[in-house]
Design goal:
Helices cover about 30% and strands about 25% of the residues. By secondary structure, the chain is of the alpha/beta class. The longest helix has 18 residues.
Length: about 375
């Protein structure tokens, strides 16, 4: 198999490339990135004899199409604004593609993907991604589901915390700040409840959960819970659901007043050429970097409650991914890059062939996917309680 990684020199791209090179059956990995020093950036991480570096020249679309015409599958880890061009090139060349980005900006390309007979797997990383596969796995364990609570977040290990944020950057900090301007949709008492971005850090849904070995973590709404549960037949009678980001306690208390004062505004400040959010990214990002011996932790929990055989049951899946200090790869990078690599290989082997815009919840075989993750040291712990 030949698999291309678009944006291969970024944090997630490095993890995906390292995994592909270590995988049986992958003969060549094509690293596509605008940086010209790819070999130097990947030195010591993996066997570069199986990596071919491509620096796009000219228009993005044709450059990507030229790469895709010679590979069996593609992983798109480019910035979100370039997602459409990557997907369009995959459709034009009939090359299966995996992207970690949200599907909503390319839904109009679905019919073209179906007509071309090409599978485009969207939202396939950590969150969304691994969590959606766990949704599918849990759905088979219930006759009906009445509540789903999904939690995920990247945090520093306790010894790496620094006041007042207790946070450090394991992915694009500008995107971290952008996500704090995201509206959320919850389900409460069977009704849709909107949480505007302006209230993300000041609303009644904010709460704490207890995680073994870590203690209390703060959860705040950050996603559209309704979008995914609509894909589950077993959840037609859902009474409650929420998607939450996890941080160390105090996160919302820090950001709520700043948001109210406009520090997360996207509007340019006259005479500066930058928005308050962009300024914060440039100011805070360099101060929140991990040291070489510090670990990030990706903490995920999904809680499903419902009925099976007339009895109430709760299924809880827990997952913690930590930084690999030997390679330097962050837990966040592994949590995004590994799922993308696994599914790209499934596509290249023809294990997933449905054409169109796909989703991990409906189209990734959960048993083999979770086995592949476990083989890479990422193991989901599942507990079942009968009430």
């Amino acid at each position: 198999m030949k698999i291309a990684v678009l944006g291969g020199l970024g944090l997630q791209g490095r993890a995906a490339i390292a995994d592909l090179v270590a995988s049986d059956g992958v003969e060549q990995v094509v690293c596509v990135d605008t940086a010209t020093d790819g070999a130097a950036r990947l030195a010591g991480l993996t066997d570069l004899s199986r990596v071919r570096f491509v620096v796009p020249d000219g228009a993005v679309g044709p450059a990507l199409a030229n790469v895709m015409a010679d590979v069996d599958a593609v992983i798109d880890l480019l910035p979100q604004p370039l997602m459409r061009q990557a997907v369009q090139a995959a459709i034009d060349t009939r090359t299966p593609l995996v992207t970690t980005n949200y599907v909503k900006s390319i839904t109009d390309l679905g019919p073209a993907a179906v007509e071309a007979g090409v599978p485009i797997m969207t939202e396939c990383g950590l969150d969304p991604g691994i969590d959606l596969v766990l949704y599918a796995r849990a759905a088979r364990q219930f006759d009906s589901i009445v509540s789903i609570d999904s939690y995920c977040g990247g945090i520093p290990e306790p010894k790496a915390m620094a006041k007042p944020l207790c946070y450090k950057v394991s992915w694009n900090f500008d995107m971290v700040l952008s996500s704090q301007n995201r509206d959320s949709v919850m389900i409460e008492d069977g009704e849709r409840v909107a949480v505007p971005a302006g209230e993300q850090h000041d609303n009644p849904f904010i709460h704490e959960i207890e995680v073994a070995g870590l203690g209390k973590l703060e959860a705040f709404p950050n996603g559209d819970a309704l979008h995914y549960v609509e894909m589950l037949d077993a959840a037609k009678g859902l009474r409650r659901s929420g998607r939450y980001t996890l941080r160390w306690p105090g996160w919302s208390a820090f950001w709520a007043p700043l948001k109210e004062l406009g520090f997360l505004s996207e509007d340019k400040v006259a005479g500066t050429g930058a928005s308050p959010r962009e300024f914060l990214g440039r100011l805070l990002g360099p101060q929140l970097q991990y040291g070489p011996a510090e670990k990030d932790l990706c903490v995920m929990r999904n809680v499903f409650s419902g009925l099976e055989g007339g009895r109430r049951k709760t299924v809880t899946s827990d997952l913690i991914i930590e930084r690999d200090l030997a390679s330097g790869l962050f837990g966040m990078s592994l949590g995004v890059g590994y799922p993308a690599s696994i599914v790209a290989q499934m596509l290249a082997r023809g294990e997933i062939t449905t054409p169109g815009l796909l989703n991990p919840l409906q189209h990734v075989p959960d048993t083999s996917f979770l086995e592949e993750l476990a083989g890479r040291g990422i193991k989901v712990t599942e507990t079942v309680e009968w009430n």
